[in-house]
């Protein structure tokens, strides 16, 4: 039996002693289930944030073929990112639903880390399950683990030497990985100033939600998440993260 929100331990304030963050996700809309609320806060504070989508989300709408879905979801993610102050969204083009953990994925993510030179990464839960016990999807698991490994590989000259040969010198400056949707959060980010923008960014995934096949209250979902994490941080609204140190 899961503890009630009032029984959960307090969360520490998320570290914000950094200036550049790269948010890495498997699909368009992954970051919008909470992380984008924090991104809105960070960009308002003058921090630089860029997004990397490993897939185009082309397998995400059952009623549409992938060749129709991919461009629509790309466009919606770009629009969603702009709503929280992010102008750079890179799509790596790995197959939606078939992302494989391994050297090709690790190299692609290490390349983006060397290119952007972040001090922090934001990823989504890459455990077997979500809070509450629902099974997590394989793309999420592969991407989160690969992002953590790429944070280390990006700083090692002898891993993926083809990157250095292409002019991308090693970058070992990643200090934190912030994991959204973790079953064991340790910290939270005050999002009182970013919640509304984060909700708007999730609602911008219009085609996905219109074809979901079941009702989903995106506004209510994010407000409930923010309220619960806010209680644990001692603020009005927050988003919870597990913090990993690189």
Descriptive tags:
alpha/beta, eight-stranded mixed β-sheet, 246 residues, 38% helix
Report on this model:
- There is one protein chain.
- This protein is an alpha/beta fold.
- It has one domain (5-245): Rossmann fold (3-Layer(aba) Sandwich), CATH 3.40.50.10320.
- Helix content is 38%, strand content 16%.
- It has 8 helices and 8 strands; from the N terminus they run E-E-H-E-H-E-H-E-H-H-E-E-H-H-H-E.
- Helix 3 packs across helix 4.
- The model has no long low-confidence stretch (mean pLDDT 96).
Topology of helices and strands:
Elements: E1 12-13, E2 20-25, H1 35-44, E3 48-53, H2 66-83, E4 89-91, H3 103-116, E5 120-124, H4 138-153, H5 161-165, E6 176-180, E7 187-190, H6 195-203, H7 206-210, H8 218-233, E8 238-245
Parallel strand pairs: 1-7, 2-3, 2-5, 3-4, 5-6
Antiparallel strand pairs: 6-8, 7-8
